[in-house]
Amino acid sequence: MSGKAWLAVFGSLTVAGCGGSNMADLEEYAERVKAREPRPIEPLPEMKRIDRFTFEPADRRDPFVIDRQSAEVAASPGNGIAPDPLRRKEELEQYSLDSLDMVGTLEQLETTWGLVTAPSGTLYRVRVGNYMGMNNGQITRVTEEKIELTEIFSDGDGDWRERQAAVALSQ
């Protein structure tokens, strides 16, 4: 017999095996399930009443508006070095510098970009002026070997200090 003949015989046996089976067990089970008494539906839980509260600001400051005067007073320590409290944090500032890897550089329109991977595996493009690291590290220079930063950190006595840091190209 050829391959087509075997296929035809096998196909007809498969179809014949599916038809005319005894489904009495299934029908009997379905009838038993239909004959059961329905269970009562549980009532919905009672909703707790929440007291209303009306906020009366009077002479208090609005928590949704930045008070620039207070921020300037808080940011003016004795040595004149302090991070900008009004600056929006950048994505790479949530990671410590030692968890970031420089993987290369890219030059585009006379700007040298550093390519940095975060612990999440995401690749970021950074340049001079961007921030990264958890100590307000601002990028001051990007070379093919490393990304140089100036970090501003608290010395514990209420003053702020600057230090140089770098993220080197990983091998």
Summary tags:
171 residues; alpha+beta; 4-stranded antiparallel β-sheet; 3-stranded antiparallel β-sheet; 3 helices; flat
What does the model show?
Strands 4-5-6-7 form a 4-stranded antiparallel β-sheet, with no helix packed on it. Strands 1-2-3 form a 3-stranded antiparallel β-sheet, with no helix packed on it. The protein has helices at 3-18, 24-35, 68-74; strands at residues 101-108, 111-117, 123-126, 131-132, 137-142, 146-154, 160-168. The chain is flat and about 90 Å long. The longest helix has 16 residues, at 3-18. A hairpin with a 3-residue loop joins strand 5 and strand 6. The two termini are 65 Å apart. By secondary structure, it is an alpha+beta fold. The protein has 3 helices and 7 strands; from the N terminus they run H-H-H-E-E-E-E-E-E-E. 20% of the residues lie in helices and 26% in strands.
